[in-house]
């Protein structure tokens, strides 16, 4: 597994520094989905690619395609990519690390071709729009559009930071052909790709805790979300109503949280993949008081897993526990409909090949599930064999304190480059 050349490593350092200087808002990095900052960052990558002699084009969703052409156009292209938008006041590596790693891979392959002759297979770097949901409430906008999976209703979503602007306005303002996207026309045929590889910083603490620089992703967790769950009881005077006559909404909801937490632990002990979160848990501030038995609690419930069956089973468990608690405490618990995002399984052949590459190079690595979503999920679920490489990163993600070390990035970029160049033969496409 050849390392990244020193001059390309220096290019990566310079690019990270330039992106930070351009988009630092005083606290963190802010590049709005279909906004000026996202476009400017993409133009910066495009200019470098063009200067190196790579081909570039923009599709109808304003995704950027960077190509190192091969000599046999009948072969499916080997693809990599990521995104450049960020959450408000985010970090400098989320998304950008994948784009820069992909650019290094194409430049390295171009340099090799100058010595050994051109490759038969085309290499493709995709810089995709709108991976983050922080701006319009929906993730994977650009990658969904690639495969005709962009729901036209999303166009009317208001910007969460400025409700006077819709996604339609933002897309049109940054050059997207909105009518083409709304018609769900495929911008990229999944069969035209041999495989897809994405590099990303890890957004949790596992790799730091385990002391490994590179992670190999087994799958991207799907999720079920209940944004409008509530427990309804009966408001009462806290001093006048004994326990046996109370219909306490807070204790009913708390019972549900604790029972599901206990079930979560049991499932983990059985080897199931699952994470669960009660993200919002509140009584109405206009009504709650220290001396009032709460009559209603509103909460959210989210659970994620690599396994669709585990998600379905946990939904059934949550509904069963809610019904039992409702009877015991004489309350009503409504989870509401689940908003579902399917899990995505990374290709087992590519994962095994990546494990073998790291093993042969003596590179410490960890195989783990991705708890956060990524564009690679869209590719995998469109039928494109996909792989993900994580790079160790301290202090989590979606905050200004992301702390990826350049040495770790270069190790991960070398793995991505090897998977990009060798993966087509691994999957037989």
Write the layout of secondary structure elements.
Elements: H1 6-23, H2 36-51, E1 55-58, E2 64-68, E3 77-83, H3 96-116, E4 123-128, H4 141-146, H5 167-173, H6 178-182, E5 193-201, H7 206-210, E6 214-220, E7 222-232, E8 236-237, H8 249-269, E9 275-277, E10 281-282, E11 292-293, E12 296-305, H9 308-329, E13 332-334, E14 339-341, E15 344-345, H10 348-361, E16 365-370, H11 375-381, E17 386-391, H12 406-427
Parallel strand pairs: 3-4, 3-5, 5-17, 6-16
Antiparallel strand pairs: 1-2, 2-4, 6-15, 6-17, 7-12, 7-13, 7-14, 8-11, 9-12, 10-12
Helix pairs in contact: 1-3, 3-12, 8-9, 10-12
Radius of gyration (CA) equals: 24 Å
Query: Which percent bin holds the helix content?
Result: 25-40%
Write down how many β-strands occur, each being a DSSP E stretch of 2 or more residues. 17
Largest sheet: 9 strands, mixed
Average residue-wise pLDDT: 96
N-to-C order of helices and strands: HHEEEHEHHHEHEEEHEEEEHEEEHEHEH
What share of residues are in beta strands?
15-25%
Overall outline = elongated
Number of helices: 12
Distance between the termini: 21 Å
Query: Unreliable segments (pLDDT under 50, ≥5 consecutive)?
Result: none
| Main structural class | alpha+beta
Would you kindly provide a written description of the structure presented here, covering whatever features stand out?
This protein has helices at 6-23, 36-51, 96-116, 141-146, 167-173, 178-182, 206-210, 249-269, 308-329, 348-361, 375-381, 406-427, and strands at residues 55-58, 64-68, 77-83, 123-128, 193-201, 214-220, 222-232, 236-237, 275-277, 281-282, 292-293, 296-305, 332-334, 339-341, 344-345, 365-370, 386-391. It is elongated, with a radius of gyration of 24 Å. Helix 1 packs antiparallel against helix 3 (96-116) and helix 3 (96-116) packs across helix 12 (406-427). The strands form 3 sheets. Strands 1, 2, 3, 4, 5, 6, 15, 16 and 17 form a 9-stranded mixed β-sheet that branches. Strands 7, 9, 10, 12, 13 and 14 form a 6-stranded antiparallel β-sheet that branches. Strands 8-11 form a two-stranded antiparallel ribbon. The chain is an alpha+beta fold.
């Amino acid at each position: 597994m050849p390392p990244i050349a020193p001059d390309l490593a220096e290019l990566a350092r310079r690019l990270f520094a330039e992106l930070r200087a351009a988009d630092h808002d005083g606290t963190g990095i802010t590049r709005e989905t279909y906004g000026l900052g996202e476009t400017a960052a993409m133009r910066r990558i495009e200019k470098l690619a063009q200067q190196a002699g790579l081909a570039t084009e923009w599709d109808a969703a304003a995704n950027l395609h960077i190509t190192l052409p091969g000599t046999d156009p009948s072969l499916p292209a080997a693809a990599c990519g990521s995104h450049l938008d960020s959450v408000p006041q985010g970090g400098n590596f989320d998304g950008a690390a994948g784009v820069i790693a992909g650019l290094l891979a194409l430049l390295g392959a171009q340099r090799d071709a100058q010595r050994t002759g051109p490759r038969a297979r085309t290499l493709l770097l995709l810089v995709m729009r709108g991976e983050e949901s922080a701006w319009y409430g929906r993730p994977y906008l650009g990658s969904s559009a690639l495969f005709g999976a962009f729901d036209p209703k999303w166009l009317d979503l208001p910007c969460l930071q400025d409700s006077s602007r819709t996604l339609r306005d933002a897309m049109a303002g940054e050059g997207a052909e909105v009518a083409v996207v709304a018609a769900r026309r495929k911008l990229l045929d999944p069969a035209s790709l041999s495989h897809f590889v994405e590099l990303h910083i890890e957004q949790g603490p596992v790799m730091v805790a385990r002391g490994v620089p590179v992670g190999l992703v087994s799958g991207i967790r799907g999720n079920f979300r209940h944004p409008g769950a509530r427990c309804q009881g009966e408001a009462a005077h806290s001093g006048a109503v004994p326990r046996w006559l109370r219909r306490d909404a807070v204790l009913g909801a708390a019972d549900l949280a604790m029972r599901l937490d206990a079930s979560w632990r049991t499932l983990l002990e059985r080897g199931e993949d699952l994470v669960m979160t009660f993200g919002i848990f509140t009584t109405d501030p206009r009504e709650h008081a220290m001396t009032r038995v709460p009559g209603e609690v509103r909460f959210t419930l989210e659970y994620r897993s690599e396994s669709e069956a585990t998600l379905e089973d946990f939904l059934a468990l949550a509904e069963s526990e809610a019904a039992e608690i409702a009877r015991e405490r004489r309350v009503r618990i409504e989870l509401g409909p689940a908003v579902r995002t399917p899990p995505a399984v990374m290709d087992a052949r590519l994962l095994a090949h990546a494990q073998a590459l790291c093993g042969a190079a003596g590179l410490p690595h960890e195989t783990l599930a991705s708890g956060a979503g990524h564009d690679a999920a869209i590719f995998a679920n469109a039928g494109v064999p996909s792989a993900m490489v994580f790079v160790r990163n301290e202090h989590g993600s979606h905050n200004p304190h992301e702390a990826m070390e350049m040495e770790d990035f270069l190790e991960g970029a070398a793995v991505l480059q090897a998977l990009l160049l060798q993966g087509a033969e691994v999957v037989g496409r």
